[in-house]
Amino acid sequence: MNKLTIFWNDKGTAHFNWWVTDRSELAESAIPSLESHEILKADLACMAELAVGRKVELVVSSHDVHFNQVNIPGKAQRHLRKAIPYLLEEQLADSVDELFMAFGTKLPSGDIPVRAIELNYLKRIVEQFAEAEVKLDSVVTDLDLLETPEEGTLVVLKEGQVLVNDSKVGAWQCEQQDFSWLIQKQLNDVQEDDEMPIAIPMKVIAEEEEQYQFFEQNLPAGRFAPLSALVDSVYAYLSGYRIKPINMLQGEFEPKAESSPLKDMLLKVASVAGIVLAAHLIYQGSQWFSLKAESEYLLKERNALWKQAFPGRKVTSSPLRSMQSFLRGLGQGQANGGFLNLLKSTTGLITDLNLIYPTNISYNSARNELRMDIIAKDLRTLNSYRDELKSSGHEVDMSSATQRGEGYSSRLIIRR
């Protein structure tokens, strides 16, 4: 789905920036008031037309958000929203009663990430978007849009701000003029006394080469190995993130599902389909009862015919199996019994129809011999089957084999 990303910046900034993922649609719409990607917050209503049919994501500055983590026992997971404020009460300078807290999924370490923002500030933002008729789908922080590098540091230069995500320290932000001494202090805190300084890999996202060069000149000498990655727009880079940030529209701010003409129509169609399905089930149920009654009637008829054909014998549960057992017991000297015994002893040696496949079987009761036309996978398999028949006590005459496709066909005359 096409997305509209609005970068709200911090509280003290009067403007916001925006970006849409599909630029071609924007060119076709030709909205004159949106020629600039920097708009006053007071003019948010001009985004209403652009927001139609798009997922709207608001990115607030991490300067206005507290980043924390908590660890809660498994039994208390369902009480997260009530428990988290008390766990963070001593870690936050602001009163927890004045903050709204959103949390993400549990990390592999067992910690739960928490984002805390001033409650009234978030309410004002949500109300302002509602008045501008721009429906918010998610509210995230800019630092949550940064991927964590496998090694080293990722830096994004954004209008005098520096967004940082370090593989060891985590995510933080500052003014660009303060970055040099802050990163030097961070290096001093994490470096061991006897540790040799190593140039740390640093990927720098910037829009202009001059911007990157100025940033590089102010880095601590010899401590980083910077690599520039120039982009057309930092906002496009941030809006195209590949991770799943924490959506702060939770609890009372969670977007409510809105009804639409299409949804109403689908509900009506589903209702009609439900009625038809219920009628079908009722009809099938009546058919089942009818078939059950017919089955009981046929069972009685079968038992009556059995007693008529075999008076004095107990009615069996499986007449077919009883008849087969009766034929097997007729003995080899009788026609049916001899045929079944010979058929069983020969076909029982066929374990795989892909190797030996009978195409025709006939029986001569006078000679008590079975004629079997077969197709074998190869000559070796054909001869092996003949030898197995002989070793099991059969007399076997085999006609010469003829190649048939990828296999060989032959006729076996089997006696016992």
Determine Rg (CA atoms, Å): 41 Å
Please describe the biggest sheet, giving its number of strands, its sense, and whether it closes into a barrel.
5 strands, mixed
Strand/helix succession: EEHEHEEHEEHEEEEHEHEHHHHEEHEEE
Output the structural class.
alpha+beta
- Mean pLDDT, as a whole number? 83
Q: Roughly what percent helix? A: 25-40%
**Unreliably modeled segments:** none
CA-based shape: elongated
Give the tally of β-strands.
18
Please identify the top-level CATH class of the largest domain.
Alpha Beta
Strand residues, percent? 25-35%
Report how far the terminal alpha carbons are from each other.
77 Å
What's the CATH topology name of the largest domain? Nucleotidyltransferase, domain 5
In the sheet with the most strands, the strands line up as 3-2-1-4-8
User: Count of DSSP helices?
Assistant: 11
Keywords: Cell inner membrane, Cell membrane, Membrane, Protein transport, Transmembrane, Transmembrane helix, Transport
Membrane topology: Single-pass membrane protein
Domain GspL cytoplasmic actin-ATPase-like: 41-255
Protein name: Type II secretion system protein L
Give a quick precis of the structure:
This protein has 416 residues and is an alpha+beta fold. It is built from eleven helices and 18 strands.
Fold and architecture overview:
Belongs to the GSP L family. Keywords: Cell inner membrane, Cell membrane, Membrane, Protein transport, Transmembrane, Transmembrane helix, Transport. Pfam families: GspL_C (PF12693), T2SSL (PF05134). With 416 residues, the protein is of the alpha+beta class. The chain has 4 domains: 1-145 and 241-256, Nucleotidyltransferase, domain 5, CATH 3.30.420.380; 147-240, 2-Layer Sandwich (Nucleotidyltransferase, domain 5); 259-315; 320-415, Gyrase A, domain 2, CATH 3.30.1360. Helix content is 35%, strand content 26%. It contains 11 helices and 18 strands. The chain has helices at 23-29, 48-51, 80-88, 119-131, 179-190, 209-217, 234-239, 261-309, 319-328, 335-347, 379-391, and strands spanning 3-9, 15-20, 38-40, 55-60, 65-70, 99-103, 112-118, 138-141, 153-158, 161-166, 170-175, 200-206, 224-230, 356-364, 369-376, 395-398, 402-404, 407-415. The strands form 4 sheets. A 5-stranded mixed beta sheet has the order 3-2-1-4-8. Strand 9 (153-158) and strand 10 form a beta hairpin. It is elongated.
